[in-house]
Amino acid sequence: MIADRVRAIWCRELQRDDISVDDNFFALGGQSVIMARIQMAYIEEMGVEVPVDQMFLRPTVASISEYIEST
């Protein structure tokens, strides 16, 4: 499932294991360097490129997963 893979990437890059699908990336302490690492992980591990603007517009695992599924 896409959301599980996205969540795993977020947990690893944010160094947390308590992230839910509705948690906000920025509220979790996310910032630009972490966002860039997550963006690269999407490409390397999932084969999908998520533009930076979409990452700002969709700051939850659930919303980013919906975007990935729609592409």
Description:
It is globular, with a radius of gyration of 11 Å. It has a single domain, classed as Orthogonal Bundle (Non-ribosomal Peptide Synthetase Peptidyl Carrier Protein, Chain A). By secondary structure, the chain is an all-alpha fold.
Secondary-structure topology with pairs:
Layout: H1 2-14, H2 32-46, H3 52-57, H4 61-70
Helix pairs in contact: 1-2, 1-4
Q: For the report, how would you describe the main beta sheet? A: none
Instruction: Tell me how many strands there are.
Output: 0
Radius of gyration over all CA atoms, rounded = 11 Å
Query: Which geometry do the CA atoms define?
Result: globular
The fourth-level CATH homologous superfamily is ACP-like
Q: What is the total domain count?
A: 1
Measured as a percent range, the helix fraction is 55-70%
